[in-house]
Specification:
The protein is an alpha+beta fold and 133 residues long. It has one domain (3-129). The chain contains 5 helices and 4 strands. It has helices at 46-54, 56-71, 86-97, 101-114, 121-129; strands at residues 6-9, 17-20, 25-33, 36-44. A 4-stranded antiparallel sheet has the order 1-2-3-4. Helix 2 packs antiparallel against helix 3 (86-97). The longest helix is centred in the middle third of the chain and has 16 residues, at 56-71. It is globular.
């Protein structure tokens, strides 16, 4: 049902997309961790959608940050699963969508280091998820 109401994505399948609900725009993204798969949904504005449509880099960066943040809240072997909150989503969304591109690249690098991900993992992640471009 949600994909039928889709208004924007970079690729189909297991990837984020935006759809129109009765109440507004929803950013929907899948996350897997071990044997657990979850789907997260949060409200976004028309302005957020415009920014995402205008920059594939920001669209990919948002999913990269959200995927890794949300994945750390659940999954096989996670000692204290918790809910990924709307406040966390808003903070990540605003950092990715409304920073300068240079500041965003610095943020991605620092985020990757904090999560113990390789420096070039953002590029690898983006290519594997968004291979249908």
């Amino acid at each position: 049902m949600k994909r039928e109401s889709e208004v924007y994505s970079l690729s189909g399948g297991y990837s984020p997309f935006i759809y129109k609900s009765k109440t507004g725009l929803i950013y929907c993204f899948p996350v897997s961790s071990g044997h657990a798969d979850m789907e997260f949904e949060f409200d976004i504005s028309e302005q957020d959608l415009d920014v995402l449509k205008s920059s594939n880099f920001r669209f990919k960066a948002l999913y990269y940050i959200l995927f890794n943040e949300a994945q750390s809240t659940f999954g096989t072997g996670h000692p204290n699963p918790r809910r990924y909150t709307a406040e966390e989503f808003e903070d990540a969304k605003n950092r990715v969508l409304y920073k300068s591109e240079q500041d965003l690249m610095v943020f991605i690098k620092a985020f990757s280091k904090e999560k113990n991900l390789a420096e070039d993992y953002f590029q690898y992640f983006s290519k594997t998820v968004f291979q249908q471009e």
